[in-house]
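In this supplementary section we document a worked example of the pipeline. Step one takes a protein sequence of length 285 as its only input; no multiple sequence alignment statistics are reported here. Step two produces a three-dimensional model, which step three serialises into structure tokens for compact storage. The input and output of this example are shown verbatim.
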Amino acid sequence: MMATRPIASAVTGPAVSAVLPALLLRPYPAVMGILNVTPDSFSDGGQFIAPEQALAQARRLIAEGADIIDIGAESTRPYGSQPVTAEAEMARLKPVLAEVVALGVPVSIDSMKSEVVAWALDQGAAIANDVWGLQRDAGMAPLVAARSVPVIVMHNREQADPAIDIMQDITAFFERSLEIAARAGIASDRIVLDPGIGFGKTQEQSMMALARLAELDVFRLPVLVGASRKRFISTIVASEPQQRIGGSIAAHLIAARNGARIIRAHDVAETVQALRVAAAIEGQQ
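The serialised model returned by step three reads:
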């Protein structure tokens, strides 16, 4: 595997001045632990829908080294997920969100609905995570600007198109998102980009996005990657989601080497260990 950069590298310049600066300046990426309070998420749907189970999982993720907890109440899996209303999302979040926030780790709200994000920010969430990159809900960008919170802008497509150059598509998408952000008044140092592994992409395109991640350097913004347990892993080695820890770590180490500064993962302890060991080894060079 040929490295484009060492894992220990960090984003420099204005991109780190306000968006989680301490985490982004460490010699290894921050780890965002996934907490799904949904019945139908692809890997852990239904496991943490009960408030006491969700809170216990949040505590476990933090104990394992999660720097951020990303909590979502609507599955966005490409196949089999059911859209829910804002009211339903908030009903799932209400019993757990404030208690998770009280654990003291920054909480990201994973929602494409500005109404849900606004409510979650009122409850103490600190980061907006929009899987449609400010392009689905017209109220999202003005909300983020008004609240002055960091926002994760993820690339997405309605459906995969195997004929396109996926990195060109991702780049064009982010250009549109950043135009929307600028018009709304979102400071550039509050934006994190996410190429959306597994969203609107063929399995080969997901792997291509990881391999060519460094092309996103053109934006001079921090990049988040979430390849955890994604289906492309099973096209290489047949496996169910819970059997994809090794593949997830491999993908995340490559993402870190190619510039990712935040890794979104289900298996936090293993991911933290892998990232820190890789950074320590590279630090000996």
